[in-house]
Amino acid sequence: MDIISPVYRWSETHVVASAKVTTTYKGYLFDLTGKTNNDAFDSFAAGEVLFEGASGSKRGDGAWEITYSFASSPNRTDLTIGAITDIDKKGWEYLWVLYSDVEDGGMLAKQPRAVYVEKVYEEGDFAKLDPDYSP
């Protein structure tokens, strides 16, 4: 059985002047692929957007047509798992629970003993996706 997670995927295609698609800009695209936003981006909070990469080609007029691919998963705050409270998890972090066996009415039951939130992806500065970015 598959479990559906709340993920919104989208892509944007932009026409970019050839002069702006420099080796440095291509390096930014390469470096940001597989990273999450370290600051608010396109109405999403930090940690909610994953940059899945870009693809593009040069058009006949010399400009580049670049498609940027993203996925968004919501941040969660104040989660409660069993008696463990105040759990915060960014959208692309992985949450897992360590359970212990406890006796409950003469039967064994699982009880959350610890909750771990693991960072899966590094963060990146999505401002660098803008071809006009200047450090």
Mean pLDDT: 95
Estimate what percentage of residues fall within beta strands.
Answer: over 45%
Order of strands across the biggest sheet?
A: 1-4-3-2-9
Structural class: mainly beta
Beta strand count: 9
Helix and strand element order: EHEEEEEEEE
The share of residues in helices is under 10%
Q: Low-confidence parts lasting 5 or more residues at pLDDT below 50?
A: none
Overall, the morphology is elongated
How many distinct folded domains?
2
Distance between the termini: 47 Å
Largest sheet geometry: 5 strands, mixed
- Count of DSSP H/I helices: 1
The radius of gyration is: 21 Å
The assembly state of the depicted protein chains is: single chain
Structure notes:
The protein is built from 1 helix and 9 strands. It has 2 domains: 8-74 and 122-129, no CATH class; 76-118, no CATH class. The protein has a 5-stranded mixed β-sheet with strand order 1-4-3-2-9. A two-stranded antiparallel sheet has the order 5-6. It has a two-stranded antiparallel ribbon with strand order 7-8. With 135 residues, it is mainly beta. The mean pLDDT is 95. Strand 7 and strand 8 (107-118) form a beta hairpin. The radius of gyration is 21 Å and the shape is elongated. Helices cover 7% and strands 50% of the residues.
